[in-house]
Design a protein that fits this description.
Elements: H1 10-23, H2 31-34, H3 36-47, E1 62-64, E2 71-82, E3 88-98, E4 102-104, H4 106-117, E5 120-121, H5 123-138, E6 142-151, H6 152-155, E7 166-173, H7 174-177, H8 179-190
Helix pairs in contact: 1-3
The structure holds zinc ion (ZN).
Length: 195
Amino acid sequence: MSEVKKTIDAERIRKAVQEILLAVGEDLEREGVKKTPERVARMYGELLGGTFDDPNIHIESVFTEPCDEIVLLRDIPFYSICEHHMLPFIGKAHVAYLPTGKVLGVSKLARIVDCFAHRLQCQERLTGQIADFLMDKLKPQGVAVVLHASHSCMTIRGIRKPGSMMVTSALRGIFKRDARSRAEVLSLMHNDKGQ
Ligand code: ZN
């Protein structure tokens, strides 16, 4: 039985944003905010557009290649939305794997990051989801994912520490087991940083 793909309920967001505007004392007919509920609904459709997307579509272009060296896509810009405050966290992802005869089209790594990032997230879970997905689908010898991100909920509110970066890593397979492989992948990820 084929299921109808779920999508974000824009109408419901629109109504909720009207409520927020009323709660902060706005006049819904004021020119500047009149279309804000629609705009915010569209915006969430975009920012959280990965929520009902299936990352499996990005794993279709797998190539057989006798490669047994680390493949790394570094400095992939990403944004996500923190589930605790619904504020963005923005940063860079480094995604590496050690293939077992199968490699993935390079842009697909970035698409997989986006698919998981464009949801309500927490950075630790996001990091693990990317690593587990690649481990499961590509069956490589190992996967390493490192995310660096600045969280708006820490920079513009609460403790207010602009410039602080949260770093999370998820190591799977050989990168978890073997110290030399781990050191190699982490040095590839972090060499010539800041140059
Ligand atoms: Zn937060």
